[in-house]
Specification:
about 300 residues; single chain; about 70% helix
Length: about 300
């Protein structure tokens, strides 16, 4: 059996794959958080609940309407995005002129309300959600066995992350969004509907979280607790990457996912805290984060 640093190569690459999969979810979720914070200056503590909502919407679409995985990849993010748009327009928008702490407290309360509702309706145990038949089985790469669905998750999350970055950084719509956060009055003077842009931004972040939830459903099951289990780690990822940095959120998500996977190989006892240790070190050396701008 081939060994690397005394570790069987299959075990090493298996943990690397797990790290990449976790990193894919970290990147997608931290990207949504970074978009909302970078453009709205709102720390969206409801992001984990929106991730959970995406998985539950996919599950309910299948259970009650017979709508399977592939349509749910589009329908669930749209439904959760519309829900986010309603929340932003009716409640969150009233807090923009107040201290950012009010937005954090509101979204934290919203997360507890959503999670509590689904725990009451479905209990704390997970609901199974099958992967699509097209992605069943796996592929033998010689040095490891790659489950097809997990490979799909890595690829599609990377495409979604890069697509969102291009939308924000390289399109006219993205330039309007970024300009509106710097000087909303000036942008509105040019005939741009700034409130609609802000609503779209929050809906986009919520939709990204829901998209990650649909991807996660066949791997982690559908549970009311899946968002609260993930959100603290994702906040750590955003802090390490730099609050509001879009590309920082993407790169750091994958990097920390891989670091977590490798830690499970070489020092399993530290795998649950390695991301927070890295966060502490980064904050000591560079408080703005790896890709953040110094104030």
């Amino acid at each position: 059996m081939t060994m690397i640093f005394g570790i069987p190569v299959q075990a090493l690459f298996g943990q690397l794959l797990i790290g990449l999969i976790n990193g894919s979810f970290y990147a997608l979720l931290s990207l949504g958080l970074a978009v909302i914070f970078g453009l709205l200056r709102v720390i969206n503590f409801a992001h984990g609940a929106q991730y959970m909502l995406g998985a539950f919407v996919a599950y309910l679409l299948l259970q009650y309407l017979g709508i399977g995985y592939w349509p749910a990849l589009i329908v669930a993010p749209v439904i959760v995005g519309l829900f986010g748009a309603v929340i932003e327009r009716t409640m969150l928008s009233r807090l923009y002129d107040l201290d950012p702490l009010y937005g954090l407290l509101f979204t934290f309360g919203l997360a507890l309300t959503i999670e509590g509702t689904f725990r009451y309706l479905y209990g704390a145990s997970g609901q199974p959600y099958a992967a699509p038949a097209l992605l069943s089985g796996g592929t033998n790469l010689g040095f490891m066995f790659l489950p097809n669905y997990r490979g799909w998750v890595v690829v599609v999350s990377l495409v979604a992350c890069l697509g969102t970055w291009l939308l924000i950084e390289k399109t006219k719509l993205g330039s309007y969004l970024r300009a509106a956060t710097e000087n909303a009055t000036l942008v509105q003077a040019f005939g741009v509907n700034v409130p609609v842009l802000l609503t779209f931004t929050y809906a986009l972040g919520a939709g990204l979280a829901a998209f990650a939830g649909v991807l996660a459903a066949p791997i982690y099951q559908v549970s009311p607790l899946m968002g609260s289990n993930m959100i603290i780690v994702v906040f750590a990822v955003v802090v390490v990457g730099g609050m509001g940095s879009i590309m920082g959120a993407i790169l750091t998500g994958y990097m920390l996912g891989i670091a977590e996977g490798l830690t499970k190989v070489f020092y399993p006892e530290a795998s649950n805290i390695v991301i927070f240790v890295i966060m502490a070190i980064v904050l000591l050396l560079r408080p703005a984060g790896l890709f953040g701008r110094d104030a």
